[in-house]
Amino acid sequence: MLADFFEYDFLRHTFFTGILIGIIAPLLGTFIVVRRLSLIADALSHVTLAGIAFGMLLEKRLGFVLLSPLYSGMAFSVLGSILIEKLRSVYKSYQEIAIPIILSGGVGLTVIFISLADGFNRDLMNYLFGSVSAVSQQDFYTIAGISILIIAVVALFYKELLTLSFDEEHATTSGIHAKRIHLLFIVLTALVIAASIQIVGVLLVSALMTLPVAASMRLAKGFKQMLFLSVVFGEIAVIIGLIGGYYLNIPPGGTIVMTAIMILLLSIGVKRFSFRYKKAGETNGYEGSN
Amino acid sequence: MSEPVVSMRQITHAYDQKKVLNNVNFEIPRGAFMGLVGPNGGGKTTLIRILLGLLKPNEGSIKLFNQPIHKFKQWNKIGFVSQKANTFNRGFPATAFEVVSMGLTAKIGYLRFFNKQHKTLVLQALDQVGMLDYAYENVGNLSGGQQQRIFIARSLVNDPELLILDEPTVGVDYENVQRFYDLLHQLNDKQITLLLVTHDTGTMTEHATDIVCLNQTLHFHGKPEEYTSLSKEDLSRFYGHPVNIVTHNH
Q: 0.90 exceeded by the pTM?
């Protein structure tokens, strides 16, 4: 089934990019979920779409092809992430308000850029739902570089990210620079989203960051275990979703997310089964001791 | 008298014109087991936040371990178990070991990794609070009293000289409260200075070496026996409403 993915260059790039985002999206998604910031991914993905639309507008109107839409998407996403942090510090008691502001701003800008360009061709659809053929060699190298950077930064700042996620007040009193770490974290999130969009699409990128985490949360005992399981589930969803999407001629965003949902349902089932099994074992043990 | 670990002079602070601390002078002697009591809104938590550098007072000066607070860098000397520790996200998937290891994050420093030596420190802290057997249990599955011990271990892992606990016994049953105070005495015997913010004045007077009563200003600073012998009128004046001290020594 995988033969085509290794035979054709464009599919190979997509496959390896998929493997990379299967690691980085759940990796940061784990911190996003435990910090109850799941909707930030949605806001940033819409800002990324505005950036992509901007890049495509430049291409169409000015023939300015030096800038791939991926880069303009990244730039917008990073700017959006910095704006979210600024808004969160302005509205300290209503920090979540930053998300709809940035999300609607992203959609608004996208509509304006599409109108200015008099509409785009099929390419924009690829960015909405993902595509198996959207990743160029240059994009793959960029995403590989970003992935290495993200994995390195998470490894280096793992203990700070975990401490801040669990108890921000304690982290601050112990001397951790919460604001700087927050900013670093949200900029990394923006990069992950921009990197993932070509495969899963704007509308489904947040699912790849949260669904594997939701599944692993049911089964993991500790944070490290949850992180590991999230990445495993993310990889399974991406690989099955990519292959399924290719052979069924469906945008991979849909098949990846549906695979992730199947994994989530399975994890809920496994948890319930193990809970009942454990309970039955305890009851039997109690009766046996009498 | 030994040198104070905390010295606060003429602290005044207001939130939106509403004064919560008014010219408070406050010291914690080294080795003390101090209880900070007072009514809700009396400024106890604000005082702690100022002491921890989380809030800058409108007026006044603070010295920590004989150093002005703005020059003080050894925050690992101060352990803090916040009120929020009782209301943490119980669904957070962290083991007791992971929670205690978070206490070392700032001490280890940026761009450095957790190593075997740190692991030993975490296990020692868990052992110190009698929770070694639960090291790899999910902290959300532990009882309120056990969780409280885990949060104390998170502070102890840094080997602090001053431990501040803000309302640590809220939601903990009587038996576990007694065990909790036994643990605090053990820590105090090891020369850890304790500052405990509480509403449970009765239990506090049974255990503390010093009692401080705060309601915007410092109304009382003395020994527990002096506090319990105060007249009802004095206590009512301190609290702004009628008060009885209920102890468990009946």
A: no
